[in-house]
Amino acid sequence: MKLFFRSYGSGPPLIILHGLYGISDNWVSVGQILASHYQVFIPDLRNHGQSPHSITHNYPAMADDLLEFIDDHAIQNPILLGHSMGGKVVMQYALDHGSIPEKIIIADISPRAYHLRETHLDVMNAMMYIDFDTVHTRKEVEELISGTIPDKRLQLFILKNLYRVHRDRFGWRLNLDALYANMDEITSQIQGIYPFSKPALFIKGGLSDYIPDIDMPLINSMFPKAKLKIIENAGHWLHADQPERFIELIYQFLQPGS
Questions:
Q1: Which site from 9, 18, 21, 34 is most exposed, i.e. has the minimal number of CB atoms within 10 Å?
Q2: Which residues in 10-49 are b (16+ Cβ under 10 Å) and which e?
Q3: Alpha-carbon distance 183 to 186, whole Å?
Q4: What pTM does this model have?
Q5: 196 and 171 within one domain
Q6: Among candidates 58, 25, 72, 28, which has minimal Cα distance to 44?
């Protein structure tokens, strides 16, 4: 699958993968900062943003998309950074193709299976509820979304997926039907035969519950060189909550010998 992507800077390659409901645009500000030292690639994952849609949405398939992306662009020994669902794609890829990544960075996600959260269902239902035959302005969509999703920040995050199909009609860039049908795959545990033997950094938001202490034995079994860092006063979207600290940890980890 040929993924849409954005690219910035020059230097050693660094690929950033967004999370569920995200798009490459969510990571442009971080990517442009990192582009002062790296050539940064930010793809839209399948069924997201401007990348193609598919009825298949699981981690082996998305890891294959990443393999194709790296091959197509002749990227050598990339650093891989993934947030949430994108972090699981990075983990799957690293376990499947351990010789290729130089290092990996996982933002606020564990390889384990997760229970389906009410927030995910609320988001899906709110987006699927919109009837674009009767809704004609961004403001109308925002008002309807706010009835189900009271968190203003989450509303704005979701509305990033809104686009004009043509002058008089809006639509969602997300393939909602495929994502809804594959939520069990999205929340499933990563599987691999061999551990990833190169450096791995897991960054946890101090206010997030996505990486509890009980997950560390599983993380260490799959990623024996894993380090865990915690960003205080940051939730699941830690790169948006504390961007300076997030980038500082990345630079520290990417120093030679780290």
A1: 9
A2: eeebbbbbbbbbbbbbbbbebbebbbeebbbbbbbbbbbb
A3: 5
A4: 0.96
A5: no
A6: 25
Q: Is 236 a catalytic residue?
A: yes
Identify whether 44 is a catalytic site residue.
no
* Number of domains comprising the chain: 2
Q: Is the same domain home to 198 and 221?
A: yes
Chain segment 82-123, per-residue pLDDT in tens: 999 999 999 999 999 999 999 999 999 999 999 988 888 888
Q: Which run of H or E residues covers position 226?
A: strand 226-231
End-to-end CA distance of the chain: 34
- Work out the percent of the chain whose per-residue pLDDT is above 90: 86
Determine which one of 24, 51, 84, 110 is catalytic. 84
List the domain range (segments joined by +) for residue 207: 5-113+190-254
- Cα distances from 232 to residues 45, 111, 157, 202, in angstroms, run 29, 22, 22, 14
Please determine, for residue 178, whether its predicted confidence score (pLDDT) is greater than 80.
Answer: yes
Instruction: Given the residues 177, 184, 209, 258, select the one marked as catalytic.
Output: 177
For 129, the token pair is 């509820």
Asked about 84 being catalytic, the answer comes back as yes
Active-site position among 24, 236, 239, 241: 236
Residues 138 and 99 in one domain: no
Residue 257 has pLDDT above 80, yes or no: no
pLDDT tens per residue, range 42-92: 999 999 999 999 999 999 999 999 999 999 999 999 999 999 999 999 999
123 and 223 assigned to the same domain? no
Shared domain check, 123 and 107: no
